What we know:
Layout: H1 12-17, H2 21-25, H3 34-53, H4 68-91, E1 96-104, E2 113-121, E3 125-131, H5 145-158, E4 166-173, E5 178-184, H6 186-206, H7 227-237, H8 249-280, H9 301-310, H10 324-331, H11 333-340, H12 365-374
Parallel strand pairs: 3-4
Antiparallel strand pairs: 1-2, 2-3, 4-5
Helix pairs in contact: 3-4, 5-6, 7-8, 10-11
Amino acid sequence: MGAHARNSPSALHRTLNCPPSLVLGEQFQDEESQYAAEGSAGHALAEHLIKKHLKQRTKRPVSDYYSDDLMEAVEDYVAFVIEKIEEAKRECNSPLFSVEQRVDISEYSPDCFGTADMVIVTDKVAHVIDLKLGRGVEVSAEENPQLMAYGLGVLEMVEMLYDIETVRLTIFQPRINNFSTWDITPEALKTWGEEILKPRSAMALAGAGEFQAGSWCRFCKARNQCRARAEEFLRLAKMEFRQPALLSDDEVAEIIKISDELAKWASDVYAYAQDQAIIHGKQWKGYKLVEGRSNRKYSSDDKVAEAAKAAGYTDIYKQTLIGVTEMERLMGKKEFARILGKLVYKPAGKITLVPDTDKREAINTSTAAADFQEE
Ligand code: SF4
């Protein structure tokens, strides 16, 4: 096994929906983002803290990414895992705990392996827990191919020793308060492995199958230049609307549905084109590079203060209260709640239109209209 799986479980949502994206993406360089590096640092810290709780050998990792915000997210996750560990100890005489467990799914997809953040196995339940440190997209555990693949790998490891009746898959995404858990039987999971994962992975590895654009394109290395994605968006953008001159309610709803993805696609292509022009000197017909607008700045705050005071101006500083998050970080959660708890409130959020799959409760439309007019 190499260090990187060719068909990685974390990419399965994309490669199962658009199998040829695997081979198409292989011609592009890996994108090491700052978010991914921060995520790796967070996972390393979580691993250390859980191993410490389990009294296993471990060394505290060091990283420049350890901000208060990241530490808090990791601590929330570790507290959840420890709770599950203690629960498992009460329920089972010989539970299995494994942190950052390497799982092999090659029985279903050659060269498919990955690392499950936490695996807890008791007499009847194999529980796979995945820490997500991103804020951008809320991830659900339900029918999540990455976790299902990990579940298959864990079953392979433990089925000889435990009589598993349930595979439990959990996503813990502390930064957006998302906790999602889903149960599946070993039989149903294996059926998915045989009927979906196996044939679709074979297609993906061979570069076969149909290109299919969707939400999974956001994580595809070919996303900026992919013809299938562009054609899909251009088709939607050129949607032929029926007469009369005004759009019907259904047509407006159709446009709202694609607007988010359409905007993301346009900004991806724009960022790609700008990057090519700035870094590689690429000329795009009808476009040129210019300097962006900028605001005036002091060259030296000290010298400005000195000159202003010398000219007789004394009222040149302003003092402002630090924000809620910064104050909480300064005092720590408990002290913050004790000292300022009664003085902090959460105003109603700005009213916004979202798909009805969104978890938030719908608000009363007459109140919404009144609030909207007040703004
Ligand atoms: S951008 Fe989307 S449609 Fe194109 S190859 Fe990637 S996943 Fe498939």
